[in-house]
Design goal:
Length: 249
């Protein structure tokens, strides 16, 4: 008797798209003032060897920080560019599903977003193809919840194979929160709950409406590929390209 093995692995490739946002406290069709302060003096001066911008009269200005905050107080100190960073990760191998019928492969990635933007950030995910997880002409079906909201539990029929994800973290959007029995309900973020499928259309994963300096925010995405107990899956090396994007709001 000849024994054959089905191999499945997922490669997660990162695309990082930062957006730098600058707001204005006053503007019209002919000018923009990014920030202002109340003081009694200051201005710009220069020569062939220096350029100076100063303010006089501000109180308690300067840089200060602790383990839980960073503060730039005063007109000169607050005048810094908005930035956002997204941790870089290597490809993820979900391992091997042995045999043609039945089996599960899982893996996780943790993404850290850090931004000084007072409006916060959004983290999204999308697949490069539909279905997302493929090997030549063979594929796992993209996970489709039973209703408009994610499924609390990952469910695969005996005659199908599916690939999906579940995010966890302090900034996960309401769609992936639960009340213990349903998703997009309550405020909990139960481990291994609220499963959805990837799409070539961008899906929101995490959202924050404030700066998260200095520690940043972690979102962990769990991936699951599963073959039903009676489903025959073609052998091969399966892969998916998932784009994770962090944008400053």
């Amino acid at each position: 008797m000849t024994h054959r093995h089905f191999h499945s692995f997922i490669m997660i490739l990162l695309t990082f798209v930062p957006i730098y946002a600058i707001g204005q406290v006053m503007q019209s069709t002919v000018y923009k003032i990014e920030s202002d302060s109340i003081n009694f003096g200051g201005g710009n001066s220069s020569s062939t060897s220096y350029s100076l911008e100063d303010t006089l009269g501000e109180i308690a200005s300067g840089y200060s920080s602790s383990s839980s905050y960073v503060m730039n107080a005063g007109y000169q100190h607050m005048n810094e560019s908005t930035y956002i960073t997204l941790s870089a990760l290597s490809d993820l191998n979900l391992g091997t599903i042995g045999g043609f019928v039945g089996g599960v492969a899982t893996g996780t990635h943790s993404w850290v977003v850090t931004t000084n933007n007072p409006e916060g950030y959004t983290l999204t995910a999308k697949a490069s193809t539909a279905p997302a997880l493929t090997s030549g002409a063979a594929s796992f079906g993209d996970y489709v919840p039973a209703g408009p909201d994610p499924d609390l539990n990952f469910t695969v029929s005996a005659t199908s194979s599916k690939f999906g994800f579940s995010p966890e973290g302090v900034d996960v959007v309401q769609r992936f929160k639960d009340n213990g029995s349903s998703c997009n309900a309550g405020t909990s973020n139960t481990t291994d709950a609220c499963w959805d499928g990837f799409s070539t259309t961008t899906k929101s994963v995490s959202l924050r409406n404030s700066s998260n300096l200095p520690s940043g925010s972690t979102t962990t995405i769990k991936y699951r590929a599963e073959i039903g107990a009676s489903y025959f899956q073609d052998a091969g090396d399966y892969s998916a390209i998932i784009t994770i994007t962090a944008l400053a709001l």
